[in-house]
Predict the 3D structure of the following.
Amino acid sequence: MVEVFKTNVQRIIDTNYIIAVIKRQFPAYKINFDLEDCDKILRVEGIDLQSNYIIEYVNCLGYICVKLE
């Protein structure tokens, strides 16, 4: 399963931090950002993906994260 999220993350250093935080809780997830995209895409792939937790983690770090439908 793959989920795509719109974020307001601007810097690569921030993406690395966010990925590390998510991977601590969900080590099997494949996670990447596309900062070239106008929506600053966060893409997460995994089995039994828990979108609400991803959104909550990113929001708690001070960033906007919205699931794209």
Q: What stands out?
A: The chain is about 35% helix and 30% strand. Residues 15 and 25 are 16 Å apart (CA to CA). Helices lie at 12-25, 51-60. The beta strands are 2-7, 30-34, 41-45, 65-67.
